[in-house]
Amino acid sequence: MEPLPFHPDTARLAAFLGLLVLLALGERLWPCRPLTVARAVRWRINLAIVALDSVVVRLVLPLAPFALAAVLQDRGWGLFNVLSLSGPAEIIASVLLLDLTIYAQHRLFHHLPLLWRIHRMHHTDLDLDVTSGTRFHPVEIVLSLAIKLAVIVVLGSSPLAVVLFEIVLNATSMFSHANLRLPPPVDRWLRLVVVTPDMHRVHHSVIVRETNSNYGFNLPWWDRLFGSYRAQPGDGHLGMTIGLREWRHQADLGLWSLLQIPFLRKVPGQ
């Protein structure tokens, strides 16, 4: 295996921190919606979830996708290795198929009750901003990583393709959740190639038919192709309500309370 021109973990961390700062600045300068919860309160919780997720993943699934891809490449395992597909063609194919996997997984987490119990923590955020793109329950992160590892095994994706996909997916997840106001013409053209904040914000509406739409984080094509695309929220981006009807008070959304959500038989108010 040829060595990568960068260290995977360093590249991912640098991309995460750099984009976090850049998008946070953009949200200050060009916000789309006024916040209903103090930024410091939500950031403290959401970033604590990021740290916890990182620790849990290291303990439960210590084999990183990059390391798995390197083993597969060295041994010639996986579809692309058998077909001798390499270079830009392999990278493009890997990114497309891994992104389709994430779309399918996200849709599945909405429609299977057991998986929805886990995923709904992500939807309890009462505001959306750059940190919302990292707000996932540790159980969901582990399941998502396991699915990704299984797909990498089948495809035999190269280490470079896997690292690039992870960086891009993390970046677009943060971008699509950002509280960022884009000029309508820019948004209209940009959402042809990437999921924009306005496109994904619809997915965080309290209205169920809107929640069950726009599942993509990165590429917008899957929603259009599979009939889950919704252009705008019915109440408009300023009038829509973000979150879940069952969780409307930040007092019920502390870190410990969020971690318990998948295991609750009842929700607040029931």
What order do the helices and strands come in, and which of them pair?
Elements: H1 8-29, H2 39-60, H3 65-75, H4 79-82, H5 87-111, H6 113-123, H7 138-155, H8 159-177, H9 184-190, H10 197-201, H11 208-211, H12 221-225, H13 236-239, H14 255-260
Describe this structure in words.
- By secondary structure, the chain is mainly alpha-helical.
- It has one domain (8-263).
- Helices cover 60% and strands 0% of the residues.
- It has 14 helices and no strands.
- The chain has helices at 8-29, 39-60, 65-75, 79-82, 87-111, 113-123, 138-155, 159-177, 184-190, 197-201, 208-211, 221-225, 236-239, 255-260.
- The mean pLDDT is 94.
Please state the CA-atom Rg, rounded to the nearest Å: 19 Å
Number of DSSP strand runs: 0
Percent range of helical residues: 55-70%
Assign the structural class, choosing from mainly alpha, mainly beta, alpha/beta, alpha+beta, or little secondary structure: mainly alpha
Gross morphology: globular
Fraction of residues in β-strands: under 5%
Keywords for this structure?
270 residues; mainly alpha; 14 helices
Write a brief structural summary.
The chain has 270 residues and is mainly alpha-helical. It has helices at residues 8-29, 39-60, 65-75, 79-82, 87-111, 113-123, 138-155, 159-177, 184-190, 197-201, 208-211, 221-225, 236-239, 255-260. Helix 3 packs parallel to helix 7 and helix 5 runs antiparallel to helix 7.
